[in-house]
Each structure stands twice: as C-alpha cells, then as structure tokens.
Specification:
The complex is a heterodimer of chains A (128) and B (191). Chain A is mostly helical. Among the domains of chain A are: 47-94, no CATH class; 99-128. In chain A, 62% of the residues lie in helices and 0% in strands. Chain B contains ten helices and no strands. The two termini of chain B are 21 Å apart. Chain B has two domains: 1-92, Rna Polymerase Sigma Factor, Chain: A (Orthogonal Bundle); 95-191, Butyryl-CoA Dehydrogenase, subunit A, domain 3, CATH 1.20.140. In chain B, helix 2 (22-41) packs across helix 3 and helix 2 crosses helix 7 (130-141). Chain B has helices spanning 4-15, 22-41, 44-60, 71-89, 94-102, 112-125, 130-141, 146-153, 157-178, 181-190. Classes of the chains: A mainly alpha (128), B mainly alpha (191). At the A-B interface, helix 1 and helix 2 of A face helix 2, helix 3, helix 6, helix 7 and helix 9 of B.
C-alpha cells in the first residue's frame, strides 16, 4: 500500500497552493493604506558628533604632543609658538607610571562611551 | 517572482509618496500572508482581518525596513505576529475548528484537483497545533529556510527543527490514516 512520505509533502503543499483570498482584498487593504501615514522616525544624531570627537581628541592630543616635543633634550624647534608658551610646556613634567596602560584604558573608555552613545541612539530610533 | 531589486525599487517609490506602488506588493504577497494568518487563526473572517492589519502595519513601518533581511521574511514576521495577536484577542472556539475540519472547502471557489488537495491538506493540518501548521506552510509552501522561519516566528533554531520534524511526522500519520490507498495514489499523481 503506497504511503505518503516526507518528500511528497513539498509537492502536496505546492499543488494545494495558497489559501484563497477575497477578490477585493487588495482594494480593501489599499483603502486602509490610503488613510494611513508612514511612520518616519526622525534621524537622531549621536550625542557626540564626529566634529565633537575630533575636537576632544585634538584638545587632548595637542598639549601632549607639544609637551613631548619641548621636553628637555628634545631638539625640535617650534617657531610658531611663542617663547612664553614653550617655557610653560618645558616646565611640564610627565609623572612616571604605567603610561601605556593608561593610554589603553583611556582609549577603551572612549570606545565604550562611543558604543554606548550609538546604542542609546539606536534604541531611541527604534522607539520612535 | 519579483527580485529583491524590484522590491527595493518599489519600496523606495512608496517611501517617496507613491502609495499606489504598494498595491503591487500587496498583490504579490497577499496569498501567502493570508495563508499564514489562516493557519494560525483557522477562521476565514479573522484571517482576512489579520491579513489587512498585517499589510497596514507593514506599510506604517516600511521606513524601518532596513533591507538586511528579505522583504518577504520581514512581512511574514509581521503577519505571523499579527495573527498570533489576533488569536489572543479572539480565542478561536472549538465549534469553528470543527466546522472548518468538516467543511474545509466551503470557502474556496476553486474546483477540481487543486481544491480537493487543499481540502485534504486543510483537514490534516487542522489536526496539528496552529504554530506547527504555520511552520509547515513556511517550510513546504513558501520554502523558507530554518533560519528564515526563526526570524519570522521568533522561535529558536533547534525548536523550529524539532517542531518541523514532529509536525511533518504527525501530518504524514494523519494523511496516511485519513486517506485510503486510492486517494493516496490520486494525491501522489497530482501532487
């Protein structure tokens, strides 16, 4: 006695096809759609934008670079900076310590904040 | 079958204000969306209402369709959840289920073998839980992959695989028990 098998189900489903829909279903849907507005979530800019990040990084990096350049023993001339500023920087002394670790820590914190910022932005986007 | 490029083009037109372009998507997907809703709700009237609601919801949130997934998967997901939600609101009573099982072809205007096959399949699927019947339709009729069914239903991959296996087994048992040898032969010939 022939029995239906797994392989026959595909053919059976396809042969039976979809459920029949009313002839005017499209029209009824379109009538409702016509009076339905599309939700357009307002684009939410990140809490700190690209320019903000560039500014923050510049403000942090510039004094550090200058301090390194004017450190005692450095022979690089910085003519665009006035003598008084150079003297101020030359007086700066970087404390000894695990600086690479601090750098990694600060970078990781900055990255974490950036990811948090994007996550909050996307959550707000989904809610709206 | 429309390609995803054509769909994306239609979606862009709709988002640009061409509401009429949405009718092309409705016409293309209404049969499957209605089938999914019917498998869950097992009542023609509720299924049609859920179908309408699904398309309206999809239209409302079209701007949120990212294009990462296929439009069909996204739409079926909305349809499936909408049908589930309708089902919770209106608990389908036993009388309706029995009525459908006894007269499954009553709502079809199709004639001949195709209508007969639908009738047989409907009767067998009515013996399965609604969720299993929907998963079988996604897999065998729309040929969605397990991963796509996971996206649509929100179930875990292993859960979908187990449900598919059990539902297929149960469906075959029902079909083989309900149908006599002649009917099975006829079914195999036309399937």
């Amino acid at each position: 006695m022939p029995e239906l098998k797994d392989d026959d189900l595909n053919a059976l489903f396809r042969a039976a096809g979809h459920k029949h829909v009313g002839e005017d279903l499209t029209a009824r849907i379109m009538a409702r759609v016509a009076v339905t507005p599309i939700h357009r979530p307002a684009p939410t800019p990140p809490l700190i934008g690209r320019r903000g990040w560039v500014l923050i990084v510049s403000l942090l990096a510039l004094p550090l670079v200058i301090a390194l350049l004017v450190a005692p023993g450095a022979s690089i001339d910085l003519p665009f900076l006035s003598t008084s500023i150079l003297e101020r920087f030359s007086e700066l002394r970087l404390p000894s310590g695990p600086w690479p670790l601090w750098t990694v820590g600060l970078s990781a914190t900055a990255l974490l904040l950036l990811l948090l910022d994007r996550f909050l932005g996307s959550q707000r986007h989904q809610r709206s | 079958m429309r390609t995803s490029v054509e769909h994306n083009d239609l979606i862009q037109r709709i988002l640009a204000g061409d509401t009429h372009a949405y009718s092309a998507l409705v016409r293309h997907y209404q049969h499957m969306v209605h089938t999914v809703c019917h498998r869950v709700l097992r009542n023609a009237e509720d299924a049609e209402e859920a179908t309408q609601d699904s398309f309206v919801k999809a239209y409302q949130h079209l701007a949120g369709f990212s294009g990462n997934a296929k439009f069909s998967t996204w739409l079926y997901s909305i349809a499936y959840r909408t049908a589930i939600s309708h089902g919770r609101k209106r608990r389908t009573d036993t009388a309706q289920l029995e009525d459908m099982a006894q007269h499954p072809a009553a709502e079809y205007d199709g004639a001949g073998q195709r209508a007969e096959l639908r009738k047989v399949l409907d009767q067998a699927l009515a013996e399965l839980p609604a969720e299993d019947a929907s998963i079988l339709s996604f897999y065998h009729l729309e040929e969605l992959s397990v991963e796509e069914i996971v996206t649509v239903t929100g179930l875990g991959a292993s859960n979908v695989k187990v449900k598919l296996h059990r539902a297929r087994k149960k469906l075959l048992e029902v079909l083989n028990a309900q149908l006599g040898p002649e009917a099975r032969n006829l079914l195999l010939e036309h399937a």
